[in-house]
Design a protein that fits this description.
about 1050 residues, alpha/beta, Leucine-rich repeat, LRR (right-handed beta-alpha superhelix), Phosphorylase Kinase, domain 1, 21-stranded mixed beta sheet, 13-stranded mixed beta sheet, 17 helices, about 20% strand, ATP binding, signal, receptor, leucine-rich repeat, transmembrane
Length: about 1050
């Protein structure tokens, strides 16, 4: 009995141990099952981290290691070493995707760390996350989660790290409660969250790191000490960049409460007023307040201490007055660009290596630089009013970037600049410099970007190897990638040693006085993307094997001869002509114009008597050939008339007008051919040709005009002519390749009309078999009346051909003849066109009627004709101009008109779908904007929609998300993107298709504007016609900022109502 009593406690302890082991094993199995359920939400594991290791076989106890119940073989899973419970899941940066079910993780009662950052998980953050109260570290950043942050998340009382940044989270934050009192790090940047900054500051306690940048938090930070005291005591990092903060800044008494602050970024908001004294922030190292509306002078303590700043960014504000001496011993980056600072350059920069003072009103002589220290590494003082000459500044041996562009410097370029051992970028453009180019610039081992354009430089380009003593140590290829010497007075030939610039991507020598033959060594420049040698005196042939990477090419206005090499024939005729009278593009090439160029209109700077003789011979030959063809054709027609007269009319010819040879205007409704309207001719809203009068009906029997394509016999439309004297000089597109199906852009009214009578065989209107449907009661006419209406070709788009038709009563219409195969069935078409036809808005050109014929090619849409030219013409018209340049006020009005109209369409659930400057017509003396070609995608088949979007992409107006979509469809956000591009065009007067050279190489318009904006150089983009004074500089900055927001990624892009309201808030 005693033995039994003695064994009893031991026995019970043994039973208890077995029970605990069993429970532990059961709990472990439950956690493993939970992880396996979580795994089911993962649809893609490209690195095979999860699929290969999270195996169900671990539920078998026999394969577990020792007594451990931890699923340690699961990738990214960590356990407590004592209890073996799962405490951490680390799956960051392995490209997983799927829609997560957070509820599957609820059984993990000991989970402290959940890190899923850097993947592509989708779905919503469910309230159940708030029940995982053991969590201390939650990182879901850089995924694709949507929806609001659930209030239950605030119940995670133990949480000290919360990172939900770079998702698509929306809604108001924080919610009704905020109990995260242990939180040290709060990172919500780059979402779509909104809320009151006052509410946010008042609930944050003990937080050391706060990043709310890239959201829509609003309100003023001119808060009382009571609102910020709990945050100010602990916060070290505070970032609210790119929100909607307004009003004033912290007051003197409040800002000094942030005693531990090390990093403060409130850039790109709308904060106004003067900066308070920041001298009592003993640890502040980074201060970024750029892109606001601060005014007044710059506090001296920021430049001279005692604040230990390392980086100071006050760019893009309205600070004024002189720049005080900089003698801070800690400052390493100083950005005061794009303000209204005046006076001379500061007498000292201290030890600061990176300085940007560009786009201010600094003046006086730059001689003060002689007193600066040797620590300077990057200096940008471009776009000021600096004077004087560049002296031999030998102390700047650490310089990597030097930008004096757009000032008033005079004198020669000192050779010492080429001796700086680290210099990568040198920009002296747009000054008054003269004299020769220093040879040292072309022997530098580091110089990569050299821009000396728009000066008065003379002499030759010293790139020959004749001075071998200077070149003994040079590699076979120098580092130069960008070389822009355009708009100078350089002479001589382009030396063959240009082939040593093997890294060159951009070479611009346009508008100089260079001569000689183009060296074959240009073929060695395999990286070349941009080559402009136009407006010089080059002779000889074009090298045969220029870089296959060329995107921009222009040799017009020279004296080149021979045949255009095959690999250059995709470039438009304007890349080669005017000028180069004996340079031929072989027939059948893919160049937009392949006939012999005609220089009758002139336009080149360099002409010779020999060239004039050659022109005369060529023109006379063409004229003789045309006359012979005309005589033969007239004889043929006479014989045909005689033959018809003898044989009479068959049933197929009954009803035809037999009055051959008469001059007539076209008529609209004559469909006696199975052939569609011509789809291969290059007349379009996007690809201009003269608006010659044309028939919309019968076949073209004869024409004295030169045409590019021969239509099939019996084609239902007269051929649009190409006048050989009309050059394709559309700015911004000259020299760019044209790809099939994506013509170079232009306005339908861009080139003067060349009216020529044409001989047409017109069918009688009594054979019409289709139906004409009116969309309102404002007009009444018959198909016969329309068929007899004189018409002229306006252009061609991805939808079809556009005509202007004048009815007998004088009313003018535009008639869009839709292309074959792009239109929906009759029932669907009628439903959609009635919806589009119901749109009535002062800024929308209304649809009036449509015609549905018995054949597939007989689909027409009729709208009012607007007496006004397109925005494209007003922006890009070259000399001789018919219109004065648009003022900034007029451009802003156009932007507001277009946004207002888009908002009207979007409110009715209708994306425009085809927004571009050629579809914006300016009417009347006040240039009221009216939209055309809206919503036509609703009439199209999927193939038609895809072609429309492809065309937008070729022209530069397609939103990026449409390019990657398998079935792209016009959308509201895509309209906003296109509007953003148009806003950029209004500000810069550059086309969306332009390739622009700069310090970063050749980029397109949107990349260029974004780059300038990011670097605080937004005003560099502005069209000089409107950038002359300071009157509207703030308004231009605002418009530029709106344009950049419009082309953000789709989830960050504002809606049209936000854009409209922002545009309306700009005052001029």
């Amino acid at each position: 009995m005693t033995l039994i009593l003695t064994l009893k406690p031991t026995f019970f302890r043994f039973l208890l141990l077995l029970l605990l082991l069993h429970l532990s094993s059961a709990a472990s199995d439950e956690e493993i099952r939970s992880l396996l359920e979580f795994k089911k939400g993962i649809k893609l594991d490209p690195l095979n981290k999860i699929f290969s290791t999270w195996s169900q076989t671990l539920l078998d106890p026999s394969i577990r290691s020792g007594n451990s119940t931890c699923p340690s073989t699961f990738y990214g899973v960590y356990c407590d070493p004592v209890s073996s419970s799962v405490t951490g899941i680390h799956l960051d940066g392995i490209s997983l995707s799927g829609e997560l079910k957070f509820a599957t993780l609820l059984p993990l009662k000991s989970l402290q760390n959940l890190t899923l950052s850097g993947n592509s998980f989708t779905g919503r953050l469910v309230p159940a996350v708030g029940t995982m109260t053991s969590l201390q570290h939650l990182d879901l950043s850089n995924n694709q989660f949507i929806g609001p942050i659930p209030d239950r998340l605030n119940d995670l009382w133990a949480l000290n790290y919360l990172n939900l940044s770079r998702n698509n989270l929306t809604g108001w934050y924080p919610g009704s409660t905020f109990n995260l009192n242990q939180l040290k790090v709060l990172d919500l940047h780059d979402n779509l969250l909104s809320g009151s900054v006052e509410s946010m500051f008042s609930v944050l306690r003990n937080v050391e790191y706060v990043d709310l940048s890239g959201n829509s938090f609003a309100g003023s930070v001119a808060l009382s000490a009571e609102n910020v005291s709990s945050l100010a005591n602990t916060v070290q990092y505070l970032n609210l960049r790119r929100n909607k903060l307004g009003g004033g800044f912290f007051g003197d008494d409040v800002i000094n409460l942030f005693r531990n602050l090390r990093f403060l970024d409130f850039g790109e908001n709308e904060i106004i007023g003067e900066l308070p004294s920041l001298g009592k922030l003993p640890y502040l190292q980074v201060l970024r307040l750029g892109g606001n509306q601060f005014s007044g002078s710059i506090p001296v303590e920021l430049l001279q201490g005692p604040v230990p700043l390392v980086e100071l960014d006050l760019s893009g504000n309205q600070f004024s007055g002189p720049i005080q001496e900089v003698n801070s011993t800690t400052l390493s980056t100083l950005n005061l660009s794009s303000n209204m600072l005046s006076g001379s350059l500061p007498p000292s920069l201290g030890n600061c290596p990176v300085v940007d003072l560009s786009r201010n009103m600094l003046s006086d002589d730059i001689k003060v630089m002689e007193k600066w220290g040797p620590n300077l590494e990057s200096l940008d003082v471009s776009s000021n009013k600096l004077t004087g000459s560049i002296s031999n500044l030998t102390q700047f041996q650490r310089l990597t970037l030097l930008n004096f562009g757009n000032n008033s410097l005079v004198g020669s370029v000192p050779s010492v600049l080429g001796t700086y051992p680290r210099l990568v970028t040198l920009d002296l453009s747009s000054n008054e410099l003269d004299g020769p180019l220093p040879r040292s610039l072309f022997t530098s081992l580091t110089l990569t970007n050299l821009n000396m354009s728009r000066n008065h430089l003379t002499g030759t380009i010293p790139i020959d190897n004749s001075h071998t003593s200077e070149l003994l140590a040079l590699p076979s290829y120098l580092q130069m990638e960008l070389l822009d010497l355009s708009d100078n007075s350089l002479t001589g030939s382009l030396h063959s040693d240009v082939g040593n610039l093997g890294r060159l991507k951009l070479l611009n020598l346009a508008r100089n006085q260079m001569s000689g033959q183009l060296p074959n060594e240009l073929d060695k420049l395999n990286a070349l993307e941009y080559l402009d040698l136009s407006n010089n005196n080059f002779m000889g042939k074009i090298p045969d094997k220029l870089s296959p990477n060329l995107h921009v090419f222009n040799v017009s206005y020279n004296h080149l001869v021979g045949t255009v090499p095959e690999n250059l024939r995709d470039f438009p005729d304007s890349s080669f002509h005017p000028g180069n009278n004996l340079l031929l593009i072989p027939p059948g090439s893919s160049s937009p114009k392949n006939q012999v160029p005609d220089e009758i209109q002139g336009g080149g700077r360099h002409h010779s008597s020999k060239s004039s003789i050659r022109i005369t011979i060529i023109v006379a030959s063409i004229g003789a050939a045309v006359m012979i063809a005309f005589v033969l054709l007239a004889y043929y027609r006479a014989q045909l008339h005689d033959f018809r007269g003898r044989r009479g009319f068959s049933s197929q010819t009954a009803g035809q007008d037999v009055k051959l040879g008469r001059f007539t205007r076209p008529s609209v409704f004559k469909f006696h051919s199975e052939e569609p309207p011509p789809t291969s001719l290059s007349f379009s809203n996007d690809n201009l040709l003269p608006s010659n009068s044309r028939s919309l009906s019968g076949p073209l029997e004869s024409s004295t005009e030169i045409v590019e394509h021969v239509l099939p016999e019996g084609s239902a439309i007269g051929s649009a002519s190409l006048n050989p004297n009309v050059q394709d000089n559309h700015p911004g597109t000259s020299g760019r390749k044209s790809s099939p199906g994506s013509p170079i852009t232009s306005s339908p009214h861009f080139i003067d009309t060349f009216e020529q009578p044409v001989t047409l065989d017109v069918y009688s209107p009594d054979r019409l078999a289709g139906e004409l449907f009116f969309l309102d009661s404002s007009l009444t006419f018959t198909a016969e009346e329309l068929s007899c209406a004189p018409a002229e070709v306006l252009g061609r788009s991805s939808h079809g051909t556009l005509y202007k038709a004048t009815l007998g009563n004088g009313h003018m219409l535009t008639v869009k003849w839709l292309r074959v195969g792009l239109v929906k069935t009759k029932k669907e078409f009628a439903k959609e066109v009635r919806k589009i036809g119901s749109i009535r808005h002062p800024s929308v050109v209304p649809l009036r009627a449509y015609y549905w014929g018995p054949r597939e090619q007989e689909r027409l849409v009729l709208a009012d004709y607007v007496q006004g030219d397109s925005l494209a013409l007003h922006l890009y018209e070259t000399t001789p101009r018919r219109y004065p340049p648009l003022s900034f006020g007029q451009r802003l009005k156009v932007a507001v008109d277009v946004a207002r109209c888009l908002m009207y369409l979007h409110d009715r659930g209708l994306p425009h779908g085809n927004l571009k400057p050629t579809n914006v017509l300016l009417e009347g003396s006040n240039y009221s904007a009216r939209l055309t070609d809206y919503c036509l995608h609703r009439l199209m088949t999927p193939a038609g929609i895809a072609e429309q979007i492809l065309n937008l992409g070729a022209l530069g107006y397609r939103a990026p998300e449409l390019a990657s979509a398998t079935k792209p469809m016009p959308s509201f956000k895509a309209d906003v993107y296109a509007l953003g591009v148009i806003l950029m065009e209004l500000l810069t007067r550059r086309s969306a298709g332009d390739i622009i050279s700069g310090l970063s190489g050749a980029v397109d318009l949107t990349d260029w504007v974004q780059l300038c904006d990011q670097e605080g150089r937004g005003m560099d983009c502005i069209d000089r016609d409107i950038a002359g004074g300071e009157e509207h500089s703030k308004a231009m900055d605002d418009l530029l900022a709106i344009s950049v927001r419009c082309i953000l990624p789709v989830n960050d892009r504002p809606n049209i109502r936000q854009v409209f309201e922002d545009l309306c808030s700009i005052s001029v």
